[in-house]
Amino acid sequence: MNLTVTTVAARPELAAAAGRMPDSWPGFVLEDLVGWANYPRIAVEFPEYVLVATDEDGAVVARAYSVPFALHVPGREELPEGGWDQVLLWAFSDLRHGRAPDTVSAIEIAVADGRQGEGISARMVAAMRENAGRLGFADLVAPVRPSAKHLDASAPMEEYARRTRAEDGLPYDPWLRVHVRAGGVIEAVAPVSMTVSGSLARWRSWTGLPFDEDGPVEVPGALVPVQCSVAHGYAVYVEPNVWVRHRV
Q1: Could you read off the pLDDT of 211-242 as tens digits, one per residue?
Q2: Count of domains forming the chain
Q3: Which residues does residue 74 pair with via DSSP β-bridges, in sequence order?
Q4: Stretch 22-36: mean pLDDT
Q5: Following CA atoms 75, 46, 63, 222 in sequence, which dihedral angle do they give, to the nearest 10 degrees?
Q6: How does the average pLDDT of the chain come out, rounded?
Q7: What is the reported pTM?
Q8: Whole-angstrom distance, CA of residue 231 vs CA of residue 37
Q9: Which helix (H) or strand (E) holds 108?
Q10: Distances (CA, A) of 194 to 117, 197, 222
């Protein structure tokens, strides 16, 4: 497989095609307000941190979004419990205030329909790490959304993230396994990495489920149950992710 990986800064004409490429996010996750407000800005304001892979025919087959942010400053220092949402907010705050970044965070890797299973996601992880090094950074971190966690939504993420396979000791989860094989180290759980809240009517429209009982509701694609309050007319999804660190 011969892929060409480049940045949107180098080839801005690929930005639109990369943005149109379908992804695997469950629809309700796109209602996360931090992501909704900030994700579209990444390719515009951080084009050096957006990678696009094309095949021999020039077709876009994958994209990888990342952002630079300042971790080693007063009040931060540790990878945030707020995970994906928090690094997006830090990255754009740092940009606005002229604060020098010292770390790069992965935001998304997506592979085109019909191209899964070809090792492209691992190639994009490696390319993202190489790009961070090229830009002068020593660390790439990733708030990883484990790809099989939705099949065991009731399990605590702390326990799930540490599950390993008996045959090789690698993570049980396929996406965590890709990161560890690429040299990443599982560092912590971000318990409140994404938050989606909405009225029961909106949750019904997003999922097709009744949302007519108080308590946890297991939703297809959700990594943990959605918490429903019928009396108050709303439900909230708080998604944990797993912090993985790659030394560049």
Answers
A1: 999 999 999 999 999 999 999 999 999 999 99
A2: 1
A3: none
A4: 93
A5: 40
A6: 96
A7: 0.95
A8: 30
A9: strand 103-111
A10: 27, 10, 11
